[in-house]
Write a structure and sequence with these properties.
Distance between the termini: 52 Å
Oligomer: single chain
Shape: flat
Helix content: over 70%
Number of helices: 5
Low-confidence stretches: none
Strand content: under 5%
């Protein structure tokens, strides 16, 4: 459970990182720049901690999805910069991330089950 908490926290911090990047106005404002550094470093740390218990491909897909959705909500709530075409493109990105995750799962092949060594050792039985 703890890796998932780190993963969600990392994605939310990523949203803060992107929001503060915009507020730096080309890295000319000090306070937003400090928040930018804090959010970016903390997000990376939390993401790395989440990888202790979650496969990297799963973590990245979930992290990306939460980050994109959170950033879209900030755009809509704060900047009023979201329209139907952007929502559609975000949905396509999320669908692509999900599709990549599904496609990366190992598929079981017929007859390719786990093999186990024989119950007895033929060489050992001959002695």
């Amino acid at each position: 459970m703890r890796p998932w908490i780190f993963l969600v926290l990392s994605a939310l911090l990523q949203v803060g990182w992107l929001f503060s990047l915009r507020q730096t106005e080309g890295f000319t404002r000090l306070v937003p720049l400090l928040f930018y550094g804090f959010f970016g470093l903390t997000s990376a740390y939390c993401l790395s901690r989440s990888l202790d218990g979650i496969p990297m491909s799963t973590a990245y897909a979930v992290w990306t999805g939460i980050s994109i959705a959170g950033t879209a909500m900030v755009d809509l709530a704060v900047f009023r910069q979201l329209d139907l075409s952007r929502l559609l493109c975000i949905a396509l990105i999320l669908a692509g991330s999900t599709g990549l995750r599904i496609a990366s799962e190992p598929h079981a092949r017929p007859g390719a089950g786990p093999t186990s060594p024989p119950a007895t050792d033929p060489v050992g039985d001959a002695r």
